[in-house]
Each structure stands twice: as C-alpha cells, then as structure tokens.
Known about the structure:
Shape: globular
Helix content: 10-25%
Structural class: alpha/beta
Number of domains: 2
Number of strands: 17
Number of helices: 10
CATH superfamily of the largest domain: Medium-chain alcohol dehydrogenases, catalytic domain
Order of helices and strands: EEEHEEEHEEEHEHEHEHEHEHEHEHE
CATH architecture of the largest domain: Alpha-Beta Complex
CATH topology of the largest domain: Quinone Oxidoreductase, Chain A, domain 1
Largest sheet: 7 strands, mixed
Amino acid sequence: MPDVAAYAIDSPTGKYSKTTITRREPGPTEVYFDIAYAGICHSDIHTARGEWGPVQYPLVAGHEIAGTVSRVGSDVTKFAVGDRVGVGCFVDSCGDCEECRAGEEQFCTEGGAVWTYNGVGRDGLPTAGGYSQGITVEQDYLMRVPDAIALDHAAPLMCAGITTYSPLKRWGAGPGKKVGVIGFGGLGHMAVQFAAKMGADVVGFGRTLSKRDDAVKLGAGDYVSTQDAARMKELRGTFDLIISTISDGMDLNVLLGLTKAHGVVVNLGLPEQPSTVNLGALTGKSRVLAGSNIGGIRETQEMLDFCAEHDMAPIIETIPASQINEAYDNVVNSKVRYRYVIDAATLGE
C-alpha cells in the first residue's frame, strides 16, 4: 500500500499542514495514478471549515484532480500506465440504480455517490482527495484528459468545468440564445467561455467592471455592473438563460426579471440565507427557476473533449502546497483570477 505526501486540516479553525496518507493498492478494476495538479474549489473551503455539515478530520480535500496512471489492476480495460486522467467530485457509486445507469452517478439512489473526500469508500475507510501525490480509483470513475489540455488546466475542469457546462447544455445555450452569467470567478469565467463557444450571445455580470476586459477576451459581448440600475433596467426581459454562480443571495426576482417569457434562471451558488421568490415572476411569463449540480462521468468526459476541440481552458494561478491556507483566504475574498491549482510536486517539500 503506497504512502504519499499530502496536506491535511484537523479542525474547522485549523490550518493545512504536511502529512502522509496511505493509499490502497489498486484492486482488479482499479487504477492508481500520480497526481500532478489539484484545483482549489470553494467547496473545499466550505467543507474544511465545517460550513456544510459534519466533517471527518483530518481532512485531505481536493476534487479537481489531474495526473498520470502509474499502476492498473489485473482486470482494468479502460486505462493503461502512462495515460493522462482526471477525477472530479466523486469516486464511486452503486453503478446499478436508475440514475447510475443513466450516467448520472452523482445522484446515485442506492447509498449515494462516494465523494472524493469526506466520504467513505468501499473499503470502509474515509476518502481523501487531491491535496496528495497519488490516489486509487475505480476505472469507471476516471476521465481521460485529451492531449490538447495541459494537466494543470485540466484539474479545475473536473468540477468548475462540468458544473458550468452541464446547465448550459441542458438548457440549450447556443446560436440565437442570449445567456447572462452572474459572477465572474472560478465558475463564472468558465460559464462565459462555454456559452460563447456554444454559439450564444453572452453577457457577464459583476458588482464592478474590474473584470470586464477578461470577460470580453473570453467571449462575452458585454459586461455589466449589477449596481448599475440603468443598465439592469435596460436589460430586463432580454435573456433566454441566466447562470448564477454567486453565493451571496442576489435577489432572485431581479434575475428572473432579466429573462424573457419561458426564460430560465439556473443557480449554481448556495447562499447561506434562505431565498424568497415572487411566484408571479414565474407564472406571469412561464419562467423557470432551476438549480444545477455537477455532471456524471459521461458528461464530464464530453465536457473535456469539448474543451480540447474548442481550445479553451480555465485561467489559473499555480501555487505550492505551502500557500494553501493563504489561497483559501484569497478565494473567500475574491482575490484569485480565477482558479488556484496546487502543484502536487510541492506537497512533499
């Protein structure tokens, strides 16, 4: 059983520090791969700080993982040593329920998906994530990283990429559609790219115009401050689809008001406080208020292939493991453009 360097946190108020964890040898249908990079998702921070419920400490977070296969089980058919692979938010599921058979393993109804960290694996042990130098995963829960995508850019796609690709695809972003993206951070800057590459007319929204130039470079035709009352009024009733990536509870009635009849507002963020909706804003124009999660393995692979085909990738800042704690604070304070990625080679330094 291989021991690997990792970074773990031991309490909601603690700090990440260097440690060693043990990974299991790959079973017959499992793959072990050496982690090259791991993205820092805001979900990592919420979990590590105990903001989303019970946590099994010490915690090794990270569910945006990319690396290279170094060992395979005797019955593995999908991957070989040397393959470039990735893992996202979950590493297992029952594989047989209706949701799993439909390629929606994240919604597994027989025991639930096994999360990449803060879960319990089929070996009965707590799962540990990508802030480590290696991981063992069932072959059915790995994605193949196309050669056109660098591994450091591939890592954030495993969560931030699929989280934004999935609702845009589901709700028909494409030619002739006008899409608004609320918030231009780790998720928002991916949503703008996907919507633009799908052929939609894209408008980005932020509190200020400080990120306007980046948004335009990534495909937005316009970028609007949500504090600009005149522009917000001008845009009412003009969007087919709004993707909200923020978690600060922006008034849903305002977002709904931006859409046309039959328009859709999809929430990706999770505000801490309850939200209220004027049902008249829904029924009056047959609008839809929706939520969206990650995608399944098949759709995540589709997303990676889309990125390779359309030459798109996240904007990242690569950091050594020693800067994880500082990076967490910067993410919370919106000081990253637009995704931190940990160089796994530094985990053992």
